[in-house]
Amino acid sequence: MSSRHTQLGFDFFDAAPAASEASLPVVPVVTLPTVPAPSFTQSVTSAVSQLFTQVFSPVLTPAFVPVPPKPVADDTRPSRGRTAVRARTAVLFSRLEDLGLRGVDALVLMRTRTVMVSLIGRTLRIHEGYAEAPEAVLRAIVAFATARNKTERTTAREAILAFDVERGPSVRRQEPARPGDVAIIAQLMEAHRDLNAKWFAGALTAIPLRLSGKMATRLGHYDPGSRHTPPEIVMSRTHITRHGWREAMHTLLHEMVHQWQHETGQPVDHGTAFRQKARDVGITPAARRDVTPLEKRRKATG
N or C: at which end does the chain have fewer Cβ atoms within 10 angstroms? Predict the structure, then answer.
């Protein structure tokens, strides 16, 4: 007896040979609900429908989830690439030469927090924040580079610094405190209040005072601060312990004169205004002074 083939979808299988009626046992007949087998056309239609649903359904499977585009940063800052810096430097150099810059062989754009414009030999160094500055500021830079006397250079300097340049945030490195620092700083703060009332009519702002052990040549320093950091006065710890409290008060007054310059809108320097104010408060009207260590003074008086 030949076997017969039954087709279901795309799969094929061999059916078992049919047995004769005589050999079949007599069993109760149980009627079951019949489910018609899907036809070939229905199977193909169902498979295509499932595939269409997977591809075009709003609920996409992971295999079909599109990768979102990367957000574009809204950054208007100038490019920091080497080629871009060279191009900006060349454009700025050309603009300055059109405004009368002479005697300069090279221009360097720099990114610092303190030096805005400097002329070293025949090389002009300018903070990159001035690269797109208005013409009036560029004329001041030209005047600074070509000035023939200190008065012209000072006038140009004031015009340059009047242009606000974003210097960026700065994080001050805090030295670890040493035993006795808290007491010394408290005494310095009290001395600042007393000297402020005596010599500045109490007009100066109460600002932080800090001790530093890293000052190799300076006795003190006034930091005018920035947008991100407040002004402060830094005193050399070695200076206080080596030269004594009276010399420390002399240094503190020196830095308070710089604070007075800054808070009254004057350049923080050792120029005419500084020297006059230094004489008024009774300190040395100079950037540096000789200080004798305590041990040498004791030997000289002993």
Answer: C
Supply the pLDDT for residue 175.
74
pLDDT (tens digit per residue) in 114-159:
678 888 889 999 988 898 889 999 999 999 999 989 888 888 988 8
Q: How far apart are CA 200 and CA 198, in angstroms?
A: 6
Q: Are 221 and 215 in contact (CB under 8 A)?
A: yes
Q: Per this entry, what is the length of the chain?
A: 302
The predicted model gives 41-56 an average pLDDT of 57
Give the model's pLDDT for residue 173: 65
Q: Look up residue 229 and give its two tokens.
A: 């950091």
The per-residue pLDDT for range 90-99, each reduced to its tens digit, is 999 999 999 9
Which residues, other chains included, contact 157 with Cβ-Cβ below 8 Å and sequence gap of 6+? 117, 144, 267
Q: Of 182, 199, 252, 202, nearest to 222 (Cα)?
A: 252
Query: Closest Cα to residue 113, out of 228, 266, 215?
Result: 228
Q: Please check whether residue 128 is in contact with residue 109, taking contact to mean a CB–CB distance below 8 angstroms.
A: yes
